[in-house]
Design a protein that fits this description.
N-terminal domain of TfIIb; 4-stranded antiparallel sheet; alpha+beta
Amino acid sequence: MARRRRKEARVIRKTIPKIFPCPKCGVQSVSVVENKSSGKVRVVCGNCGLSTEFEPVKNIENVDYFNKFVDMYHSGEIS
C-alpha cells in the first residue's frame, strides 16, 4: 500500500493595486490614467477631485506615479 499523497500548498502572490487611497480624504478612490492623446499621466481622486499630471517616463509603473503624487501632496506642492 502506498501512503496518501500530501496536498500541495499554493503560493499566493500579492498583486499591485489599480486603485489607491487618497492622501487628502482617505477614500480608496485614486486612479492613475495614461492619456494617449496628450501624452501625459494623470493621477486623480474620484472623491475629492485632487489631481495632478506627470510626464510619462519609461519603466515607471502606476504605483510609482501614485507615490510621487503622495509625496507632492505631503510636501505642499498640490492641495
